[in-house]
Amino acid sequence: MKRELVRGAGGIISLASALFCLQCASAPPAPDPQSARAAILRADEDFARLAQSKGVAEAFATYAAEDATILPAGANPVEGREAIRAFFAGASGLVLTWKPFFAQVAASGDLGYTLGTYESRSTGDDGKPVTRHGKYCTIWKKQPDGSWKYIVDLGNPSPAPK
Amino acid sequence: MKRELVRGAGGIISLASALFCLQCASAPPAPDPQSARAAILRADEDFARLAQSKGVAEAFATYAAEDATILPAGANPVEGREAIRAFFAGASGLVLTWKPFFAQVAASGDLGYTLGTYESRSTGDDGKPVTRHGKYCTIWKKQPDGSWKYIVDLGNPSPAPK
Fold first, then answer.
1. Interatomic CA distance for residues A96 and A56, integer angstroms
2. Span B32-157: which CATH code?
3. Tens of pLDDT along B132-147?
4. Most confident of A10-24, A28-42, B64-78, B120-134
5. How far is A126 from chain B (nearest CA, A)?
6. CB within 8 A of A147, min separation 6: which ones?
7. Of A77, A106, B23, B55, which is the most exposed, with the fewest CB atoms less than 10 Å away?
8. Chain A residues whose beta carbon lies within 8 Å of the beta carbon of residue B111
9. Is A156 in contact with B71 (Cβ distance < 8 A)?
10. A29 touches chain B (CB under 8 A)
11. Phi and psi (nearest 5°) for A128?
12. What kind and span of H or E run contains B103?
């Protein structure tokens, strides 16, 4: 009887384990905020590199989530990837460089933000080159394919660095 | 023997349930992104009301997380609740009104952001009143006491509404 009981109990423990594991399998993978934080810093740096190699319109379209919103200084919000591409395509001659200095993510590892500083070079109304400095915040959302895209981006001017 | 087996199995199932429940008890409460989204919209509206009744310095200090950063247009980032209070205390005569138009939160319900529009009234260098319009992004973090405080706040000018 003892042997039967143990064997029976073993079967039940296996069933409980199986049910527990099924529950684990249906849950999303455990979030890892540290690696997500590193991932959005890397995404922001890759984004900045693409702006150098392909220009701002291509870079801002590539890294935009489908429903991204940008809040450009001096203009109204621009919503959606293609509208964002068109907005930057209209800013001919604009060269943007930037670098994040901070990142933080939610416990679930699906939403985070980077803060950084930028430098913009463009042509002034008088035809002369103009360099401006500023800071920005980019909010990132993990996409269904595991990549990170921004959902919000905005910045504003800072005094020129000393 | 059957009766013994069932009784034995019942004890094991109870133990498994108890262990499972202990695990549940030690986990944080299930996140609820919908109620978190409503909570940050409400926090942003309460924040705006406090700015009307107590002024911007008191409101921005009250709603700042201890390690909050603001990115003011035309100035360098300001970090920490007391530095933020001092920054706005130096902007005497500034009246800010705002209203969020969008909010989103992470799946974990601990981090989210609001987007909104603001109007600022201040006194120009010529002594005359100046009204400016803009938009903003505020990033909110749930605090250990369950309240929501902002950790990042920034905005920039928009054209005057038509």
1. 7
2. 3.10.450.50
3. 999 999 999 999 999 9
4. B64-78
5. 22
6. A43
7. B23
8. 104-107, 111-112
9. yes
10. no
11. -90, 150
12. strand B95-105
B22 touches chain A (CB under 8 A): no
What DSSP designation does B147 have? -
CA separation for the pair B10, A49 (Å, rounded): 62
Q: Rg of the Cα trace of chain A?
A: 24
Distance separating alpha carbons of residues B122 and B93, to the nearest angstrom? 6
Question: CB–CB of B22/B87 below 8 Å?
Answer: no
The Cα B15–Cα B37 span in angstroms is 38
Q: Which amino acid is at B140?
A: W
With CB atoms and an 8 Å threshold, state whether B137 touches A104.
no
Residue A136 CA to residue A106 CA, distance in Å, equals 19
Would you say how long chain B is, in residues? 162
What are the domain boundaries of chain B?
1-30, 32-157
Provide the token pair at A144. 């269904």
Dist CA B105 CA B140 (whole Å): 9
Q: Show the CA angle centred on residue A121, arms to residues A136 and A49, nearest 5°.
A: 65
Q: Which residues of A touch B13 (CB under 8 A)?
A: 12, 16
pTM of the entire structure?
Answer: 0.82
Name every chain A residue with its beta carbon within 8 A of the beta carbon of B160: none
Substitution target in B24, B69, B158 with the highest count of A β-carbons within 10 Å is B158
Mapped to the 3 state alphabet, what secondary structure does chain A carry?
CHHHHHHHHHHHHHHHHHHHHHHHHHCCCCCCHHHHHHHHHHHHHHHHHHHHHHCHHHHHHHCEEEEEEEECCCCCCEECHHHHHHHHHCCCCCEEEEEEEEEEECCCCCEEEEEEEEEEEEECCCCCEEEEEEEEEEEEEECCCCCEEEEEEEEEECCCCC
